[in-house]
Predict the structure.
Amino acid sequence: MKTIHRPAPRHSKGPFALLALSLTAALSSALAQYAPPPPARPFPGFANERLRSENVYMTAWDVGVNYRLRFEDKLGAGFTDAGSNWDFSRRPVDDNNNSYLLSRALPRVAYTGKRTAFMLEGRASSSIGDERFLATAPGKALAENDAGLDIHQAFVALGNHKEFPVSLKIGRQELAYGDQRLVGHFRWNNNARTFDALKVRWQNPIFGVDLFTGGVVYNDSHNLNKSNSQDHFSGAYFNFPTLLKNEITEAYLLARNVERGIATDNWTGVPAPFRFPGAQDTYTAGVRVKSKPNAYDPIDYGVEVMYQFGNRTAVFPATTPAAALAAPRLDHRAFATVLQAGYTWTENARQPRLAFIYSFGSGDKSATDTKSGTFQNLFPTNHLFYGYMDLSSLQNLHDFRIAYTLKPTTTSVIALEGHSHFLNRTTDFWYNVAGVPRNVTTAAVGSGGSYRINPGYGRHVGNELDIVAAWTFRPYAQIEAAACRYFRGNYVKESLAAVGSKDASYFYVQLTLNL
């Protein structure tokens, strides 16, 4: 699910505004299972509306604030004090219930001219009542709280693709490609995600490519947020507008290179699961093909295949620096696939749509050899794909999803979705939404004491049922709510057989204001 994004300035004939509009349209199509509804009329924000009405030249400027408030209630699983290792546990000692309030303000000043653009966007995010709080833990264990006002985006862009095919964007910026399964802005999270990066874009009618290099920004509750010089993320993302008449066609190569010395850096202000990554040199090659809107009348489809290679260490947020420094490099070979098909009743005023989506991420064959077969999810916006309860990532997973959406009015949307989750291999872990394995090392294999690698257990994790609705009741205001239930499968029941288990629920209500 996405928050309301700021509209482009009304003088959107500028090169970056046109590019942003085209990318937004492609992204909206990609996320057609559910997307919050637009306002009845475009609304630039109160400050912009006032400034532009008084001076036509102010259309080049964008001054405003995006504010979001969300209440979440988790019962039995999710982001709780017990942690994902005790999701679905029935024991009273495992406190896997959590209710809290999240707030986020994104004030911004931006300018889009004929050949130049810049943006400065701040972010103040906080959480109230979150039981994960622990004063002595890194980042106080609050993954969606970032003390004070920090810099979310700060970039300069140069170029005009109408005049010349090359443009440049440098500074702190969001990166989002394809469906955001590998690279996304993660705006669902209260802190979202940005990169300190340099991006060069070439675009002509035949093909385009984004070449970028930089590093993810770590949210540090003790200091100003910054990227780490030992964590490098680079890529080349291609698009081919004319290769296929009725399809959006893209290809990419992504590289994440993390130096081993990152384990000894100061991570005391960074909460799990976003703490130091394991040393790695991993590369992801992929192809994405998706039908263009209305290309096949009511039918749409999409295919994406991904292959990874390189090497990595099995290091996670709870790993000690000494263990991380000594961890052996594993030969990494993994892959993932996404298949989707949908049908929209286009002649119906409510535009009902039924979609089937299959997502697969490979798992590891053996934890004792020198190879790694677990697909690495990189920097995704996973909330959009594998269930709104946020229990899984695209790692060692089969996700069978059915989604039905309906638009009662032009400013409202209702979606009913179901997921069935299976592990690819029981010789690997069940990974949470952040890519961290559920692993209680004190539980003996096959004991039913908790999650770990249990090769003899069933592969069915469980089924999730979600209903979500949104209503843009004012041009500047939107409310969204969801109710979800997760029904345990054999894997969960067997993993917790000795301690007892129960199904889990999730509810949230969210208000977003574009001021």
Observations:
- The domain at 15-514 is CATH 2.40.160.100 (Porin).
- Residues 72 and 218 are 24 Å apart (CA to CA).
- The first strand starts at residue 61 and ends at 75.
